[in-house]
Structures are given as C-alpha cells and as structure tokens.
Amino acid sequence: MRRGVWRFVGSAAVALALIGLWQLGADAGLISPVFFPGPDRSFGTLWEQLHEAEFWYAFVETLRRMALGFVSAALIGIAAGALIGLSRNLRDYVEPTLELIRPLPASAVIPVFVLLIPIAFNVAKRTGKSLLLIGLPMVAGLSVVHGLIPPLGHGQLPYLGSVKDQPQ
Questions:
Q1: How far is the C-alpha of 35 from the C-alpha of 15, rounded, in Å?
Q2: Are the CB atoms for 118 and 92 separated by under 8 Å?
Q3: CA 89 distance to own-chain centroid
Q4: From CA 150, how far away is CA 121, in angstroms rounded?
Q5: Which residue in 137, 155, 146 sits closest to 91, CA to CA?
Q6: Cα dihedral 134, 136, 138, 144 sign
Q7: What's the rounded Cα separation, in Å, for the pair 156 and 3?
Q8: Would you say 98 and 142 are in contact if contact means Cβ atoms under 8 Å apart?
Q9: Long-range contact pairs involving 124-129 (C-beta distance under 8 Å, separation at least 24)
C-alpha cells in the first residue's frame, strides 16, 4: 500500500513539473501563443467549453466516429485476413508482401499506407470518414492472417532462396 502511495505522489509531481515547464515555456514567448498557449489559457478555455452544448456535441460525434471506424476496420480486416489465411491460392500471391511489411509497427504502416493511396485519403476527407477506416483493416487483416498461418521460421525463405532450399 505504501509503495502505491509513493508512486501516485511521484506521478503527480512529474505531471505538475511538466505543466510548470509548459507554463514557463509559454511565458517565455519564444513561440507565438497562437501555436503554443500556456496551460492557464488552455485549461481556462477547456473549462469554458465544458459548459457549452457545442463542445459536448463535438465530443460525442468524435467518439461515435472513432467507434464506427474501429468496428468497421476490424470487420473488414478480419474478413480479409480470414480470406487470405484460408485460401492457399490467395495467400500464395499476397504472402510475400505481407512478410515484407510484417515487422513494421502499425504506427508506421498506417501513415505510409494512406500516403501511398491518395485516393483513399481523398475519399476519407470528402466523406468525413475516419482514416481509421482506411488504415486499420490492413493491420487487423495482418493480425488474422498471422493468427491462422504461422510465420516463416529461420531457414524457411522459399521466396528468397534459402540455403536449406538449395540442392546439395
């Protein structure tokens, strides 16, 4: 119990120190207050907006779009991953590309995916759909594919011509 109290106190102290540094940075005025307002202005504006209906409408709409994006992306990604994982023919065509992008973190793949497909970005922008709906199906699909099909192990690189695959 005592250790938990000290962790809480330490965490609170770090948070307060960061807010203090933020305020000092804003007061120094090195960056325009339009781009770098201090916590006094930020928290003051937040407090004012918490009492307005428009803030809560935008908040609920943001949550709705996020939930819709996550659910839609998961459904699309799971379906695509299941198709790839269960179809040997489809997997033969797609697996080399999947193995290439497998080690990349999702936070790196989604922006690149969106940038490489500007049509998807424009559709998302014009329809007001979340970019989650564009980028997350690929991540969810990869997860399903690799849940159904084990990854290639060491020495099992038929696409790259592994030494083990060479005739003796």
A1: 21
A2: no
A3: 30
A4: 32
A5: 146
A6: negative
A7: 49
A8: yes
A9: 128/65, 129/65, 129/69
Handedness of CA 101, 104, 105, 110 (dihedral sign): negative
Prediction pTM value:
0.53
Q: How far is CA 126 from CA 6, 29, 76, in A?
A: 50, 37, 21
Tokens coding 127: 């329809």
82-91 per-position pLDDT tens digit: 888 888 888 8
* pLDDT tens, residue by residue, 55-84: 999 999 989 988 887 888 788 878 888 888
- Residues sharing a CB contact under 8 Å with residue 74, sequence separation 6 or more, in sequence order: 136, 137, 140
> At 5, phi and psi to the nearest 5?
-65, -45
Four-CA torsion 121, 122, 125, 128, nearest 10 degrees: -100
Strands (E), the chain: none
Length reported for the chain: 168
